[in-house]
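Data availability excerpt. The first of two example chains:
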Amino acid sequence: MTEIDRRPPPTSVVAATVLALLSVLACAAASAQGALAATVGLLAFLVGVVRGSRRALTWAVVLYAAGFVVAGLSGADPAPLVAAAVALALAWDAADHALSLGEHVGRDARSRRNQFVHAGTNGLVGLLTGGVAYGTYVAATGGQPVAALVFLLLGAVAVVTAFR
């Protein structure tokens, strides 16, 4: 009897990596300084998803968030930042799901349909939530930037909550 390979399935690894890269690119569209921290986060993300380390994924998200904060403080346009946050949330969720699949059923299990359904439904939730967050920002920018920031952060919290 052969031992089960507990690494994450390659389909989810590729999907998570592409989404993480899209997050860096969206952050770079907003701010070069923010993109630097997000790029370091991408490297940590790659280590986490390839090695199957949840700790590395957590640190990657922290580094990404630092990049988003730097970009926001530098006066970046919020549209690419919302796109970057949604892409990061989707990447993190895809990576976490890949790690869980690897742990529970193994790398070679027939789980592609599960991966595609999971990614598709979360993509839809992410797009809707990101749209609501950005729409709230646009509606609140009538001279109230602090309120807009609060609503944008609440939208980000809603994105993360939707995935859990």
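And the second chain:
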Amino acid sequence: MKPIVKGFFDPDTWTVTYVVYEKPGSPCLIIDSVLNYDHKSGRTKTKSADEVIEFVKANNLATEWILETHAHADHVSAAPYLKSKLGGKIAIGDHISVVQGVFKKVFNLEEAFKADGSQFDDLLKDGEEIHFGNLSFKSLFVPGHTPACMAYQVGDAIFVGDTMFMPDVGTARCDFPGGDAHTLYKSMQRILSFPGATRLFMCHDYPPNGRPVNYETTVAEQKKSNIHMHDGITEDEFVQMRSKRDATLDMPVLILPSIQINIRAGDMPPKESNGISYLKIPLNAL
């Protein structure tokens, strides 16, 4: 089937949140939500999530799943807020425990924090297929950007997370803990093995040369035109390019707050004795 896909672009983080459904009045998925976060003040807002909520309610959709493709390093998840307003289960790939284990040490998190994925309502396995109404989504394990990345296939559409971007932007970085360019190459080959007409939906768009924002392409377009990953690029060529490029990239602006929150399924750290949650900044550690 060909699901209806509605994208919501957040210009502050270049992130796209998706609502996926069959028709008005049907069950839906929400993929990769955004909680607005001001890194200068530490304040959060729900403007981006409220736009999603308004759309879901206006179309009488029933939210069954709130999915994360991975523990994002560039934006904060709004999953708990969406769940409180719309219901649904928060889910991520079952390798999230690997990422949690790494960053529990980096941030020296409280002993009570469990690096077992239990903060999420469900942990999805590679190849697992779950029905929502007359549609279903299939989880595809696509590590490389992180060791826990998932893509989600719904009918003729695949939501690729941060594996790749639009053809004129290329592919995701692999220099975060547990990232690996060889692994990402293989993961992208898995996605690009689907039929050419398969629709691919990006988690981000960083439009070059002033082109309008766009976050939908196809397998055929990626294989023909992706500047990092078109047909004919060998694994060694890709790894050499990716490694050289990653060495020049700055850390994402929101990596420190977003990782601490996103490995908790979007929940804030436990409040301290004054009733306020705090985030940590590890000095000279990353």
